[in-house]
Amino acid sequence: MTSQRPRLADAPADDAHSLSNAIEEMYEDSRDVVVIRRAWEPSGFSDVTGSLDRGDAVPAWNRPNAAMPPEDIQVLGTAATPTYSTPRGPSLDAYLADADWYDRTPLFGRDFDPAAAIASALARHSGGRPVDVLQAPGGRRFSPFTVRRLGEGKGIGLHHDLHMSLGMFQDVAPALDRKTLVSYVFTLQGPDAGGELCVYDCAPDTPNPPMMPNGFMWDLAGVEERYGSVKLDTAAGDLFFFPSARLLHRVAPVAGPRARLTLGGFLALDRTRERVLYWS
Predict the structure, then answer these.
(1) Which of 14, 147, 19, 139 is nearest to 78 (CA)?
(2) 3-state SS, residue 53
(3) Which residues contact 191 (CB under 8 A, 6 or more apart)?
(4) pTM for this entry
């Protein structure tokens, strides 16, 4: 191993005061991975995890990575990310047309507002900054979150989240501090086994990282051997966030019939560092 393990802060929601400015600290490279246990009370969404676990939620799940079976994640909503079906991300018009998917089909009922709950939880770590959903020019709102399902044998391969170069961000990126990008994820249900978030001390500009002979796929065994890492198990209600543009990461394949269910997206400071803006 030639690097340090990413710095991990793991705290219960009622004792996380030292993490009140954790988002900016990630921008300053003084903090890496934060886990907040029971950031949400599972009782707020436990009545729908059964249908989500079975995969029979309405509207129908999107399968943007169906062309790569080991990474065949199921998604409610359209993610503002590269996928195997849209390697350069969706067009902004196509994305915004589906950004209100949750308003059309509120899975959790009217007593639980996920967007408000996300903003409230993130505000505890925003350094007093307001937390708002990202908007496109003209005021059209980005999607606050997507819901993701990883079934048995499915995971997410090694990657950095380098989304700001996608065409759909052309008009909003100048208003953001693009020093990094932070991924935020709430666990709705943990799997029986597997499904851990694995984060490695490897930045996009790290020289000569381990790659497969084809030159564009990561060599997982080499990454595991060379870079310090942390592996996170999370349970229902837990929140984790980390600078996913700066740190290489993956989700280990799920083992067993119980699906890994999460709700999340991304966030960034605005260019003046006066607000936190989030989307998915």
Answers:
(1) 147
(2) helix
(3) 150, 254, 255, 256, 258, 259, 260
(4) 0.96
What domains lie within the chain, and their CATH numbers?
Answer: 8-279 (2.60.120.620)
Average pLDDT over residues 54-58: 74
Helix (H, G, I), strand (E, B) or coil at 224: helix
* Residues in Cβ contact with 244 at an 8 Å cutoff, skipping those fewer than 6 apart: 160, 161, 181, 182, 183, 266
Which neighbouring-strand residues pair with 255? 193
| Number of Cβ within a 10 Å radius of residue 70 | 11
Distance in angstroms (rounded) separating the CA atoms of residues 45 and 36: 17
8, containing H or E segment:
strand 8-12
Instruction: Evaluate if residue 1 carries a pLDDT over 70.
Output: no
For 208-225, b/e burial (b = at least 16 CB within 10 A) is ebbeeeeeeebeeeebee
Reduce the DSSP state of residue 102 to 3 states and report it: helix
pLDDT in tens, 200-227: 999 999 999 999 998 778 999 999 999 9
**What is the Cα–Cα distance from 156 to 105, expressed in whole angstroms?**
26
